[in-house]
Every structure is written in structure tokens, then in C-alpha cells.
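Protein modeling request. Please complete all fields; requests missing the sequence field cannot be processed.
Requester role: graduate student
Desired output: 3D structure, C-alpha cell encoding
Chains: 1
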Amino acid sequence: MVNNVIDVARLDAGAMQLDIQPVDVMALLQPLVDSMQPFAAQRKNTIDLMIQVDSCIFYTDAAKLQQIVQHLLHNACKFTSGGHITITLCHQRLTTPSGSDELLIMIRDSGIGMSAEFQSQLFGSFSQADVSTTRHYGGIGLGLTLSRRLCWLLGGDITVESTPDAGSCFTVHLPFNCEPHTEPAAALAQRSETLRH
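Delivered output (197 residues):
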């Protein structure tokens, strides 16, 4: 938790550095899935990894991407019991003037889901659905805030679709070739919004 708070503070100040290298996303995702299997089994969940791209190599910061996916996968397992989590790796062409491709990592679960009202507040610091959720599942809700700001730093974003009692799908959107951004979080948010519209 302390590390998350420190990372958010560094992102807010524009002090987080990136190490952009070619990354094999399949090689990055499979160990994450394997490491999460004991926790998933404890919650009586199953995890599947689906690859829908011909090439899994793209330029980004491997450690930051790993941190993002680990947060999202852990949340999916935590808020699902006796269910299923699917991680899908695919790509899409953006409907922007550049027409560039982006990598999508979709983490879908069959867990408790969220209301539309809560989704609108989801990425704020220390957000969880209510006090009873925090008491039952633990945590302070900072992981999603950190994950989204890391995505902004990598030139992408995180979106969510969810229905109460019907699960959630978090999608990580990342450019195939990351251009490092070192602006404070507010500027990164504005840049990301501009690129996606």
C-alpha cells in the first residue's frame, strides 16, 4: 500500500521514469497468470489467457505494464468467487486521423460487478464501492488509480464496463509504440482523452 501511495505521488509530480524496450506481451502475461493461480484457486476461480494477435512484440515499459495487469488481475480474482476470469490480448485500429493501432488487454470477470454511479468514481484515489466492500474484501482502492495513471504515462488508458452481479471487464489500451510522457497526471489525462477522440 505504501509503495502505491509513493508511486501515485511520483506520477502526480511527473517524476516517474520509463524504460521503453521491445516487450513480448505473451511472455509477460503468462507468468502473471501462473503466479495468480493460487489466489484464484483460493477463491475457487479459474483463469484463462486468450491470444488474438499474430505478434506479441511491441514497445513499452515492461515493468509498468506488469504492474498494471497485476493490479487488474488481482482485483478480478478478489471480487470474484467461484467464477471465471479471462485475459484477452488483441488489437484494434483507432478511428483517429493517425489511424494507428493499439494493443488491448481485456480482463473480464464474473464477479460482483459495479453500478454506473460507482464506475464514474472508480479511478479516484481510495475508491471502493462502500464501507462494507472495504471491510469484506480489504484494500483501500488505490490500485486502480495507480494503474490508470501508469497507463496514461505509457500513452494509453483503462476503460471499464460492468453490471452489478454480472461481472466487470477492464480494458488496457496501449499504443504499439510507446512515446514516453513525463507530464504530471492531470496533463497526461488530458493528452489521453485527446488521443482517444
